[in-house]
Task: structure prediction
Amino acid sequence: MSFGKHLTSTVSVGMVLLILGIVGSAAFAAGNITRHIRENLGFNMVMRMNADMTQINDMKRRLTSSDFVASYDYMSPEEILEQENAYLGSDIVELIGGNPYQPEFSVRVKAQYASVDSLEKITAPLRMSDSVEEITVHTEMVESINSNIGSLSLVLIALAGALLIISFVLINNTVRLTIYSARFLLHTMKLVGATNAFIRRPIVIGNMLNGILAAAVAILLLCLLRVYAISIDPDLALALPWSDLIWVFMGIVAGGILICGTASWLATNKYLRQKYDDMF
Result:
């Protein structure tokens, strides 16, 4: 097979694998963004006005040691008062004669606990604490976000499945064309006594190596795309870290080997079974 045909085949397969890599990267980025959104869900816990620092510190230790807590913020009555004074532009203490605010925790749960049922189970024992006055769970917002995330996940899965099928068809056609051009050579080798396995082996191995080379091209282009995207929006580095991209790279290589190997196996078998007159 000529160098030109090798180059054309490699570039064609590489472009298809690049599309698969972009979809895989988008899936990882969506997963990371989803996890970040879910870990900003949780509940607000208002402590009783008479809660002392011992009770406050006990609650801090309880939240810190809990498996469900991703992070939390604590605001004392004085901090809340200062924040509200700055927002309203007036002194609330002078207006009403005292500080009306109570200690408050804003708790964010880990992604796997960001559902209404899980939040209810988490908050039930906390509500029983003598130092807790009220816990507010934003149920409607949690349900809405989870519903939207579920719909987005289904769309991404459907898109990935469709592109995987399209990619196999495109790569299969590319490989079949390269083997089609050598069909008479395959027939000649059969005439001189070569077995099907002997003829097929170097073709399949060669196309698998070609798939690896095409995957390398796709990975290089994907790296360049990531660098360019981060230069535009640095926050994308958090949504798609290199640790996740390594899995995408491994998938691209595996896809290149598997699809090219399978396509060459099927195409070679087809032309090995054909009669000479059917090759025209």
